[in-house]
């Protein structure tokens, strides 16, 4: 009996391009690798079962001598189940069984007293090995099998949100009608990114589990072959007392089994299935390399995005948050622009056509409206609040104010409070002048925006009587160059 050698494994040769775009939902079957290994374990179990049947039949034929040896031949006369998993060339498991068939045909006599030794010593070796293979199958199903189900579930969630994004981006393109904050394509895309990140984590975890299983199979198969060699070696010692012819026949069978290299079947297996097995050297999936439908749709790109300070309702101090103005005319508030830390659902959403926008005074401007981030039911019971914003620079404030003004339903000429006391207001204070960011800075006395709804209900006739024009009638040329609608900006 030869000395067992360590198993060597040639890795599969599939390669992936890390820089290429990948589908969000791959078409591959997540359980394909698991099924392949289950089938391979089934093949090994049947192979060991063949040997167990062979020993059992040999023990019985020792009672009936030559005639009963025909029954022994029948146990190995059929082709191996899952025979495509074994190398059909000489020197492997399939060649070993072919050798057994030819030598058993020549055995016509055997000794009756070998039956007890075969049944008590050799058969238990293969029965234990058969049980080990069955336990390995259960371990594979409970381990890697569950990981595949988790990946399928995560992919189903991602696919559902991608389809929802496609529906609402199509609705946006077709008529651009009013939609709820939760249906804003920008919000939906961030939801897709969040679930896609979870999906990829599940995929990579399952991939690592399968790689561990794949690596362990080489050692397990080496153990199987070593056990087979050990059992056949014991078998040879028992039948050595038989007649010389029987001894020669069994010696040839055992020699064939002992000459099988430990990595012979494994190397042949991975060469035949290198298009299915996982290549451990291939890069893991990354969100940056994945493309999904409507990923860069214009409805998902903010007109302007960045950090602003908003005065609190209770403490009256300014807190910094992340804000965006979307093509759907929503002003969304987030704690951060990170899509992965938590589900990026807006903390506050203002539908600008239903809001009133005051004038811009330096770095400050006010917006009055309802928070519609809770959906239609919450929108009916929510109250209008006056929100006071502060940008980092005057130019930044003008750009935010101009984009919000273009989308707002009403515009008030009143500017927010100034942090520096000024002299009493003098001169013309028409809404036309207050709409201009530069004029709002020069205004001597900033006004409160309390009661905007009453002030903005002034009829055009009364405005003309006062010698002014309504804010909504301001010419488009009054908008700053940086406030072009549909041109996103981030500060």
Number of helices: 13
pLDDT averaged over residues = 75
Low-confidence runs (pLDDT<50, min 5 residues)? Answer: 15-19, 420-491
DSSP strand count: 11
Can you give the helix content as a percent range?
A: 40-55%
- Radius of gyration, in angstroms, nearest whole number: 39 Å
Order of helices and strands: EHHHHHHHEEEEEEEHEHEHHHHE
Which range does the strand content fall in? 5-15%
SSE-based structural type: alpha/beta
* Main beta-sheet annotation: 9 strands, mixed
What is the total domain count? 2
Between the first and last Cα atoms, what is the distance in angstroms?
A: 76 Å
Q: What is the strand and helix layout of this fold?
A:
Elements: E1 22-23, H1 32-75, H2 93-106, H3 114-142, H4 144-174, H5 185-239, H6 244-258, H7 264-272, E2 290-291, E3 304-311, E4 318-325, E5 330-334, E6 348-351, E7 356-361, E8 364-369, H8 375-381, E9 385-390, H9 394-407, E10 410-411, H10 431-434, H11 437-442, H12 452-455, H13 460-465, E11 489-490
Parallel strand pairs: 1-2, 3-11, 7-10
Antiparallel strand pairs: 3-4, 3-9, 4-5, 5-6, 7-8, 8-9
